[in-house]
């Protein structure tokens, strides 16, 4: 469905003066080699070519919007690999439902889940850098 065209509607949508739009439409028609609009003193109607051109142009603009939204999603959606190391009992009791929700909410994130009940010394790599405190 194409909205009813009046003299000011296209200009208002483009935030341009009606005179400027009136200047560009004939240039576009000349470029395309077809008449896009039938004009009267009161109304503007699309020709068959104008209707087809409008539909295709609208489709192209929608495709551009979709593409821009997809590019925005690359910046706003989490992506990558999340590595989690946890005890088996903790993972079963607390993490299982949360991980399912997380993957639904963030399909771009993979999960590497390491379950083990052994004690892990998280700072073992850094222990050699600290000297013991000696009271004198």
Structure explained in plain terms:
The mean pLDDT is 82. The longest helix has 29 residues. The protein is rod-shaped, with a radius of gyration of 32 Å. By secondary structure, it is of the alpha+beta class. The chain has four helices and four strands, in the order H-H-E-E-H-E-H-E.
Brief summary of the model shown:
By secondary structure, the protein is an alpha+beta fold. It contains four helices and four strands, in the order ααββαβαβ. It has a two-stranded antiparallel sheet. It has a two-stranded parallel sheet with strand order 3-4.
What's the layout of helices and strands?
Layout: H1 9-14, H2 18-32, E1 37-39, E2 44-46, H3 48-76, E3 80-86, H4 88-105, E4 109-115
Parallel strand pairs: 3-4
Antiparallel strand pairs: 1-2
CA-CA gap between termini: 89 Å
Total helices: the number is 4
The H/E string reads: HHEEHEHE
Strand order of the largest sheet: 1-2
The major β-sheet equals: 2 strands, antiparallel
Q: Which regions have little confidence, pLDDT < 50, spanning 5+ residues?
A: none
Number of strands: 4
Percent of residues in helices: 40-55%
Task: Provide the residue-averaged pLDDT.
Answer: 82
Q: What form results from the Cα inertia axes?
A: rod-shaped
Class per helix and strand makeup:
alpha+beta
What percentage of the residues does DSSP assign to strands (E)?
Answer: 5-15%
From the alpha-carbon coordinates, what is the Rg to the nearest angstrom?
32 Å
């Amino acid at each position: 469905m194409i909205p009813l065209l009046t003299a000011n509607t296209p200009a208002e949508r483009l935030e341009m003066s009606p005179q400027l739009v009136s200047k560009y439409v004939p240039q576009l028609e000349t470029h395309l080699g077809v008449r896009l609009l039938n004009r009267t003193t009161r109304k503007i109607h699309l020709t068959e070519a104008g209707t087809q051109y409008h539909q295709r142009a609208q489709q192209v603009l929608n495709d551009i919007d979709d593409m821009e939204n997809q590019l925005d999603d690359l910046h706003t959606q989490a992506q990558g690999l999340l590595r989690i190391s946890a005890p088996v009992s903790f993972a079963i009791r607390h993490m299982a439902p949360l991980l399912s929700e997380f993957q639904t909410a963030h399909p771009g994130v993979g999960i590497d889940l390491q379950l083990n009940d052994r004690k892990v010394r998280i700072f073992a790599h850094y222990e050699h850098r600290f000297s013991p405190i000696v009271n004198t």
